[in-house]
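Ticket opened by: R.M.
Priority: normal
Category: complex prediction / small molecule

The reporter submitted a protein together with nicotinamide-adenine-dinucleotide and asked that the result be attached to this ticket for the collaborator who will pick it up next week. Submitted input follows.
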Amino acid sequence: MKVLVTGGAGFIGSHVADGYRAQGLEVVVVDDLSRGSKRNLRAGAPFYQADIRDRAALEEIFRKEKPDLVNHHAAQIDVRLSVKDPVCDASSNILGSLNLVELALASKVRRFIYASTGGAIYGEPETLPAGEETPVRPLAPYGVSKHTFELYLWTMRKLYGLPFVVLRYGNVYGPRQSSKGEAGVVAIFSEQMLGGVTPTIYGDGTKTRDYIEVSDVVRANWAALSKGEGEIFNIASGNPTSDYEIFAAIREALGFPGIEPKYAPKRPGEVDHIVLGIGKAASHLDWKPAVRLQEGIRRAAEWIRAKHDNG
Ligand SMILES: NC(=O)c1ccc[n+]([C@@H]2O[C@H](COP(=O)([O-])OP(=O)(O)OC[C@H]3O[C@@H](n4cnc5c(N)ncnc54)[C@H](O)[C@@H]3O)[C@@H](O)[C@H]2O)c1
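Result attached by the on-call engineer:
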């Protein structure tokens, strides 16, 4: 069984690719390396440096590799860039994704697994935790583009029978997460602490997020190979963690007991409180998070420290 993983040189996609290999699947990676890194690729494994907006390049890859499954992680993930340039965001996250779905249909793939977001599509829900049925009210174009492609999948299933699974992640963290850009507060705060820079919390530290360790996300992608067809699932911890709590957990893991964060005004478009309901993933995918926050932060911090020490 061969799976084509888009975004497989990036943070989550590379873990998913490794996880699939560990399950005995053949893995082909497509990534334009706009954010991903060759360091995240496995030597000897097929890799195509290609932009998912490049239809001709994708056609050639599908023709050559004939994947049985598609796991789609490639995306423009910068929320603030999506605010500045929604067309650029939509060109990757909607049009690029549509290229993939059309080619997946043409090559009759058995399943299309799509990495969506639970952190950026529900906006500021009236009740928490937000379940999959919570109205979609994104506060930034990134959430709009990620959700729009979910709708395409639903429609393509109705029209042509394309089997799909959508996984809406909470805030994913863990080894290989980049500290560059806006996402990835665990990586950003860790790099800052190790570099002697005081981390900045936007707001008063009480905003809450739902953090999930990347190995739990990998297990959800395993489950999605055989379960949950035609469904959308939140993949998260189900627990709220405040900005200050995440700061304190990283501080403890790295051993900087004395430092306190700086505070700056909250940035527009940021959600105050989000926590995701994960009951549906438990019942349909037989999936539950296994890594507790303290343990996950310890693993991430260890990786970032090693990377920092090696320059
Ligand atoms: N990190 C999170 O907390 C989080 C939360 C919810 C959803 N997601 C989703 O998970 C997926 C992976 O996110 P990540 O955090 O690993 O980010 P990442 O930036 O590390 O990975 C994305 C990868 O896609 C590649 N890419 C970007 N645009 C591309 C294009 N047009 N063509 C080909 N490749 C392209 C990048 O080079 C990168 O390697 C994304 O779809 C994102 O929307 C992430």
